[in-house]
Amino acid sequence: MGKRFGILTSGGDCPGLNAVIRGAVLKGETVYGQEFVGFRDGWWGLVHGEVMDLDRSVVRGLSHQGGTILGTSRFGPYQEPDGGAENIAKVLDRLDLDGVVAIGGEGTASASKRLYEDGINIVGVPKTIDNDLDATDYTFGFNTAVEIATEAIDRLRTTGNSHKRCMVLEVMGRHAGWIALYSGIAGGAHAILIPEQPESIDQICAWVTSVKKRGRSPMVVVAEGFKLPEMSDAHSTKGLDGFNRPRLGGIAEVLAPLIQERTGIETRATVLGHIQRGGVPTGFDRVLATRLGMATTDLIADRGWGQMVALRGTDIVRVGFDEALANHKTVPQDQYQEIRVIFG
Amino acid sequence: MGKRFGILTSGGDCPGLNAVIRGAVLKGETVYGQEFVGFRDGWWGLVHGEVMDLDRSVVRGLSHQGGTILGTSRFGPYQEPDGGAENIAKVLDRLDLDGVVAIGGEGTASASKRLYEDGINIVGVPKTIDNDLDATDYTFGFNTAVEIATEAIDRLRTTGNSHKRCMVLEVMGRHAGWIALYSGIAGGAHAILIPEQPESIDQICAWVTSVKKRGRSPMVVVAEGFKLPEMSDAHSTKGLDGFNRPRLGGIAEVLAPLIQERTGIETRATVLGHIQRGGVPTGFDRVLATRLGMATTDLIADRGWGQMVALRGTDIVRVGFDEALANHKTVPQDQYQEIRVIFG
Amino acid sequence: MGKRFGILTSGGDCPGLNAVIRGAVLKGETVYGQEFVGFRDGWWGLVHGEVMDLDRSVVRGLSHQGGTILGTSRFGPYQEPDGGAENIAKVLDRLDLDGVVAIGGEGTASASKRLYEDGINIVGVPKTIDNDLDATDYTFGFNTAVEIATEAIDRLRTTGNSHKRCMVLEVMGRHAGWIALYSGIAGGAHAILIPEQPESIDQICAWVTSVKKRGRSPMVVVAEGFKLPEMSDAHSTKGLDGFNRPRLGGIAEVLAPLIQERTGIETRATVLGHIQRGGVPTGFDRVLATRLGMATTDLIADRGWGQMVALRGTDIVRVGFDEALANHKTVPQDQYQEIRVIFG
Amino acid sequence: MGKRFGILTSGGDCPGLNAVIRGAVLKGETVYGQEFVGFRDGWWGLVHGEVMDLDRSVVRGLSHQGGTILGTSRFGPYQEPDGGAENIAKVLDRLDLDGVVAIGGEGTASASKRLYEDGINIVGVPKTIDNDLDATDYTFGFNTAVEIATEAIDRLRTTGNSHKRCMVLEVMGRHAGWIALYSGIAGGAHAILIPEQPESIDQICAWVTSVKKRGRSPMVVVAEGFKLPEMSDAHSTKGLDGFNRPRLGGIAEVLAPLIQERTGIETRATVLGHIQRGGVPTGFDRVLATRLGMATTDLIADRGWGQMVALRGTDIVRVGFDEALANHKTVPQDQYQEIRVIFG
């Protein structure tokens, strides 16, 4: 009866990946006598059979270590020439592995679902720093990103106040504004701009001007995926000033000069970038990741292929790939509107 | 139609209290035209009619500020000579206040319930750094405490390893071990000791010895309320070494010498103490506190007296005082057992 | 005998400005019976006589607060129409002030020197986040900036390793590379690029490639003022690929695509920006700033006009404006070469 | 010509030890072709010839890692039965080592001096978290300890204010009060108590009462080595209340009840303990430690036996063991008096 499993981490890295791996190995070994290997660089390692041993000594001290010791990539399991369920089954057979734990985001879950339907023993652990997976209340990494962004706002606020400037901070969030929403609320931002909700440059400037009139320095937090409705596409700001301006840098670098031109308030942009996804995870993310890793060992012991582990309230539950992928979790209108009323 | 309300903070302080106040004032003013005053030093200010104005300018920048600008105390609303619902009703009348928002823990909720039953318009916001209120998935302040304790473990680990010592860290948690559990998991502790679960000194030493044999330095996290079953009462360690030893300092200071004597491993105690409840709240706690504060304004606008706001999953909900007080939220056996299997 | 003085903060803000103000007010009041006002927004407040009172209650709790409660600006004291020593003397006379404490960088020191030569009672406190004032071993704010940049490198390293990417971090330092040098050493960067030392793109790529060959992910820290010798001017990268490429964003955003093109290693840029100069100062900066503020009260009590306070070793000393301005403190060749040998 | 050297770390651990080791290995290998081994657990490893290899791959990523990968102990090189210069010379010969780098505090420097006089090729790197070595402006680890203590004060302040309590924080410093002085200044403490300067309980209570009268919550920072003049010895508080009270726990736990009894102000003690010496070093300490490590390779290449590397201003210099040990660096009276005048 197979007790050997392979773990992979796929897509963008997140603080907490190593804690998932550690949680699975520690509990799996101790409780179920499971053995683990790690596939290198995501699906690439699975497709090519490139593995590293994962035992108690390897995962020692991993819970506070950012990134993933397995490496990650954007390589897909059906990618030619060696991908596909048939070849993967051979790899698993050759490595004497009974199943796969795929830690990843929406793309990873979709691929996992297809592999599962094609007969591969596979379970999933949800991972997205943007927190946009509907299967789970929170994804690990998100909390760390929010804390980093919040600290950045705290820092920008004092320099903004000293110079009476408007500060614009761009945080991650291509399709969902969770990091912007949470860090913006935490940091007391005067406007929070998210992909889910267009706001006109006039509205934004109205908020900024209102803050300034109260004698304060405006703080705007914007998710990278926010689009001005005036922007004809992601790569220009056409319509705002009558000609196509090439979009370089982030949306903060588009917004800052527009705000300055229109309000007359000196405005500076900061793009937080990759530091949001690196480094020591928060305690919250380590706990969540460890619990998910431990619950995964129960799931594979039960041969619960085709499912993911997820957080609901304070419980770790199981969700089918189908259900997990049914909805994209964006910021609900009512939650945004509740905070929007105090902007400005 | 009354739109004036008083806010008080009672019991031990928590990071996030100020964010609750700020959230309530900002939304209440903007959406409902509510006005707020703050009672000074908890119930004392309500009983004695000592208030400060709370408006937008007062709550400016409060979300990242620890403690409570209102002050707090352990004074109770029925405390003689001026306490009691009748007198409090007069105070509210004199101050032209339509209701009370009481931010506090179990004691505060009990007192609020009694006041409500005695005819006072009162709602509650749950607050306990120990996270032991069943009404809500998490209480604000808890997350900050966990992060502080986790960082302490990270620091203790390197000094423990360098000296090959066993390190014992005592964290808060008189009746519930949530901070110990979460920070212990996050920090990769080799044993976590909580009030809910007695563990014998033999068991603890077995874990410590096992870690040492693997060449690592044991890390033990203990909640202040943990008791050795051998201890005849909270103030002695009688039975362990045949005579009553006076219990001074925290439980960590009891455990460390016992571990050292029995295992021969040099052992050091650290009592984290008050730094767990002070200072800048985490982003998570600021968001939770702000959301609770904002939801409170809806509750009082609806005249939902006798209820508290609470977190369920990712939603802010309402819970009656009765329900909120029905159960004390301790660490469930299965959640403790799941992590206990990997101790040592 | 005049005991009233005005304080101003000029130029870019720095963590520690408030601690200087607090240190001066607390010691000045207590020891010398001095009284202080603060000029608003740098020289602007002095020229226009716009002041705020500064006493013990105002400076309460200021040492850990970033920015400057006085505000700052780039306005100069000789700026028309109201500037100039004659007008300033009238303002001081009208406000009954005996002298001025000007906290600022090189420009502020130059202007102070001219005012002093024109008869104004003025002393200086050196301030530059770039640490490029020769008068003093370290300037406050620099330490905080280094810690923030170091933490960013720590974070970028884990995400770089997970993705096998080269990470390029741009930190402050227009004319001096101190922040890059210190944070780069602290973070274990594989290449540190500073304004004082041109390095060819070939050399940079050689370091990056060498790191990659050892199986590690290259980390490059670059000061904003670094210039590739191949760049004909600050606004283009002409010569590198045969055509003028408009220079947008920081130097990191120029370097990253060049490194990627030439080495084939995926490379990402992060521009740290304004978060380096905001927020809570480190303990080191608070101590330095407090000591400088306290020493300033001795200096003005001694009527030591025309001098600045400065750090030498562990002592606070006095330096004439002339001497302070004689040299720009850049990174010495030998200090750079010592670390350069271990690049790659 | 010998190019092989052994490194040891002795005494209490400090953040930065690993960065010294890394700096030495990286520069020594690259510039001089030196090879290194590490003695395990301080002098114990030297006396017993227990070593680990130290090359570039081993020191990878060490600069931000607290503690020492070599282990440390309080074992002395002349400790029986195997210690002494003659035996150590044999060990070095057997291991083909040309000299020793001893990283440690005053005891280590004394032992190194004796070994040097007995013919051993040895150099030193100063290490003391208490910063009490006169040879050097600052020792690494001290800066990290100050930052940790400063953050603790920041946290205690908000909880103190909320409850109107006096908070007493005990920090490290058995014979020198540097950590208390620096963190106390940084945190804006109302009284700083150091071993160098007795202060009566009456004086302390006078400061505390004065703060309270101004409506603030008193913050007292005390070094572990501070003694009340009323205390007949370190183990009792006799004389204060007429009977010998056993001294258990730290001095903070002695002071807090005394302050409370005498002032009537609720007072709480926190003993920071071992977290001050563990965990990730600050950037400042990593730079200092790395520079010291690199300078050590120059020193051993020059065969400068009998000397230590040290920081003077911003320069790394060399100091003979004699000179290094001539004076103990305590807080000078004038520096203490300068800050003492603003206590209360």
TrEMBL record, chains A, B, C, D:
Recorded GO CC terms: 6-phosphofructokinase complex
Amino acids binding ATP: G12, R74, F75, G105, E106, G107, T108
Classification via InterPro entries: ATP_PFK (IPR022953), ATP_PFK_prok-type (IPR012003), Phosphofructokinase_CS (IPR015912), Phosphofructokinase_dom (IPR000023), Phosphofructokinase_III (IPR012829), PKF_sf (IPR035966)
Residues forming the catalytic site: D130
Site feature location: Important for substrate specificity: G107
Subunit and partners: Homodimer or homotetramer.
Binding-site residues, substrate: T128, I129, D130, R165, M172, G173, R174, E224, R268, H274, I275, Q276, R277
Catalysed reactions, semicolon-separated: beta-D-fructose 6-phosphate + ATP = beta-D-fructose 1,6-bisphosphate + ADP + H(+)
Residues the entry annotates as binding Mg(2+): E106
Name recorded for this polypeptide: ATP-dependent 6-phosphofructokinase
Keywords: ATP-binding, Cytoplasm, Glycolysis, Kinase, Magnesium, Metal-binding, Nucleotide-binding, Transferase
Annotated organism of origin: Gordonia soli NBRC 108243
